[in-house]
Amino acid sequence: MPVEASTRTQIRAENFPDLGDELMYPRLSAPKLARLAEMGERRSFAAGETLYEQGQRDAPWLVVERGKVRVLDRKPGKDVWIAEADAGTFLGDIATFTGEPAIAECVADEPTEVIAFERQSLRAMLASWPDMAELVLRAMMARREWHEAHGYGVLRLIAPRGSRRAFEVRDLLERNLIPVRWYDVDTDDESAAMLNWLQIPREETPVLVRNTAVLRNPSAAQVARDLGLRAQIDGERFDLVVLGGGPAGLAAAVYGGSEGLRTLVTEAWAPGGQAGTSTRIENYLGFPTGISGTGLTRKATLQARRFDAVLSSFHRAVELARGPERLVRVDLDDGQHALARTVVVATGARWRALRADNVERFIGAGVYHAVMATDAERCRGEDVIVVGGGNSAGQAAIHLSRAAHSVRVVVRAEGLAATMSRYLVERIEARSNIDIITETEVGAVHGNGRLEHADLRSRADGSVERVAATAVFVMIGADPCTEAVHMMLDLDEAGYITCGEGAAACEGPNRWPTSDRAPQLLETTWPGVFAAGDVRAGSTKRVSSAVADGALAVRFAQQILQG
């Protein structure tokens, strides 16, 4: 439901970023401007003319030579003037670089001349000019953080808290690094005011407000289509196709792209995998204070796109097949297919489901398998449960405890020492609002429209205690995601893909087909197809080892491509 331009007014935001901020607005010297002019394309805009629209994909990167530009956040019924840029600065945030929808609109405030770079030429320019690349990427990321912190360019999701469809949409957007803010119609007065202005009854929620458009009761698939998360690559050839966008897949994309391999990453949901949902990763090399899963995903995704890898979200591989000219055909769930000279299977693993009465009723509406950055605030002052005794569960409990009234960590074992890193156990024990409930399991969940209670059953004597809980976060291990390859590759008894010596030892129908060489360390029983990360038999289930797998798999792929 687009809102007509004639109904919009323009207001000036209270907070403007300072044009003197060297991080947000680095000034380009005359020699730099001259060099950029030689590499880019000069364009002129009249006062009031749009340089690029909010929501536009592949918006150009623009350096302002003369004039002034107004930056607008378009909302239903109004435009908010949120920033400006003048001569000697450049426009855009990381969306300009990655090809995501632009989160703001740029309009010439006076006659303006710019030097324009389309996305491909921008990448080529930055690749040949490392100092400029560092300056540009640092400013782009700072601007994105500023936009999100002030709520500009953020999608608005209006829904009851217990809406499963709204949860799926929010999860899709957040995992794809698209800023979104949830307005709870049950508790938030602003959401009621927005619905009244839009003339949408509460019964027709969830509602997603994107710039000047409104989607009523959208599915995750509809949102993915609307935002163009799936790449259009049908029938195209790639040197390397990576199945899965977790740490292993993103590492393969970065190293493949940096080595000049034409690389495609297909991800069933969103970049980052399970690691992308982690509230804090504290044992990853190079980040002494830790890094969030979202932060690591954003940096890795930006890095992969910097090397021109094609990342396609909400795009699941359904089967590998023999293609023409000894290529591997990768069939995708929307009917498209890609042809690959080499493949890295990095599909990871999925969380195991909680076996408890009524749990299916509350999946995405009170029972969750990840803790996102916004969940602590959504659980402020409430009682929540974390099920599981591993590091992910520990990180989730600490994150939630910052705002929740109470956090119960429910584990089947006698304690946490055998399954959780010591530093996490110590932090949990130091939090007064975290209780560790051992030798216990969740037997059932209850609620009228939304989760209200959970039954905790003692494994020692079978007694049941009903406790208040508005959310249960389930982190009890995972199973490998091998649906697309289990008919073509050899799997071990637990369902993980065998590689190297394990692949060489396979004697079944999927055995290694050639006698002139043995499978390489990460190579499966299909020559040229590798496995990396959690889906690989014998992996250590750590972010660092998954990244190492992805990098090593590309090295082996190169040997085949050059052979």
Helix-strand layout with pairing:
Elements: E1 9-12, H1 30-39, E2 41-45, E3 50-52, E4 61-66, E5 68-75, E6 78-86, H2 94-98, E7 105-108, E8 112-117, H3 119-127, H4 130-150, E9 155-159, H5 164-175, E10 180-184, H6 189-198, E11 207-210, E12 213-216, H7 220-227, E13 237-243, H8 247-258, E14 263-266, H9 293-306, E15 310-312, E16 317-322, E17 328-332, E18 337-345, E19 349-351, E20 367-368, H10 375-378, E21 383-387, H11 391-401, E22 406-410, H12 422-430, E23 434-437, E24 440-446, E25 453-458, E26 464-468, E27 471-474, E28 478-480, H13 501-504, E29 529-531, H14 543-562
Parallel strand pairs: 1-6, 9-10, 13-14, 13-18, 14-15, 18-29, 20-27, 21-22, 21-27, 22-23
Antiparallel strand pairs: 2-8, 3-7, 4-8, 5-6, 5-7, 9-11, 11-12, 16-17, 17-18, 19-28, 24-25, 25-26
